[in-house]
Amino acid sequence: MIDRTPLIRLASVSKRFTVPGRRVPFQAVDDVSLDIGAGERFGIIGSSGAGKSTLLRLINLLEKPDAGRVQVGGKELTTLSRRDLRAARSGIGMIFQQFNLLQNATVHDNVAFPLSIQRPRLARADILARVLECLAVVGLTEKASSYPAQLSGGQKQRVAIARALATRPAVMLCDEPTSALDSETTRSVLDVLADINRRLGVTLVVVTHELSVARTLCERVAVMADGRIVEDLVLDRSGDRLETAISRANRRGALAPAPSIEGALPVEARPVQRVEAPTQRRVGGLPLPQRSVHV
Ligand SMILES: Nc1ncnc2c1ncn2[C@@H]1O[C@H](COP(=O)(O)OP(=O)(O)OP(=O)(O)O)[C@@H](O)[C@H]1O
Ligand SMILES: [Mg+2]
Q1: Are 199 and 279 in contact (CB under 8 A)?
Q2: Is 110 close to ligand 1, i.e. is its CB under 6 Å away?
């Protein structure tokens, strides 16, 4: 059983974009309500343009909703002052498909960057200690003095994960975290993400078009189409529920039947990993309610 006490709560959130040449704004996210429990590994899938990235960016208010409420860790982000929002965001890490590292900064400086912004008075020795801690989590301690150009794609993404971890987030938002990586490197990045979920209790919200990623990493998956969540399902060990939801979504046209998506589906359903209760009950500034183990 998963403890459903929501760490993230979206209540009727909507987001429209004005598009040049269109009189009516485009509805990217349409009245979405969603609860994600502390410690969950939650996936968002759907075809291109379905609104997945916009929904993810609404969680840390990188996109401001036109309507609805966004709560993380019991705080209503939509009502916070700019300063309080900055503090709340330090509890929400984010990683991107293209890693978004500072190219002319070392690995150490990349990971230290959010810390120096969030806690400008932190001593250099404390920053170094935290950076090394985060690099150890992703297995890259020996690369602290390297520059991004000297790293492989998988190593770059692991640096990005270390950077996101630096401020001890309770939540990690991942937008297509492995889409730029080959399958072997994908596995190492997924292992790191699963590890920080299990060991540190970090809640993962993962947007992906790779169904194998959703199946490997996530215990619950929402399917989006036209800005709405059309399915929200808890995965079982066989993965059958994901298969069924995907067939339904394909019938609705919610998922593009692209060869890459079909190719990402292994013939054998892979078991969803067992969720261990996190050893650390409090990560960053956000409380993590006790949760129990399921599957
Ligand atoms: N800043 C913006 N201005 C205008 N339209 C936008 C903006 N951001 C997103 N959109 C539009 O909103 C819709 C949803 O975009 P979003 O990036 O959330 O889709 P997605 O599901 O992540 O797609 P993909 O799988 O291709 O990344 C798209 O039609 C997109 O063109
Ligand atoms: Mg996207």
Answers
A1: yes
A2: no
d(CA 187, CA 209): 15
Cα separations in angstroms, 51 against 28, 127, 203, 248, 288: 5, 37, 21, 18, 28
Q: For ligand 1, what atom is nearest to the CA of residue 207?
A: 22
pTM metric for this prediction: 0.84
Atom of ligand 1 nearest to the CA of 57: 18
Nearest residue (by CA) to ligand 1, atom 27, is 48
pLDDT tens digits for range 25-70: 999 999 999 999 999 999 999 989 999 999 999 999 999 999 999 9
**Is the CB of residue 148 less than 8 Å from the CB of residue 159?**
yes
User: Atom 6 in ligand 1: which residue has the minimum CA distance?
Assistant: 17
Q: Which residue is listed with tokens 């990493």?
A: 217
Domain boundaries, the chain: 100-168
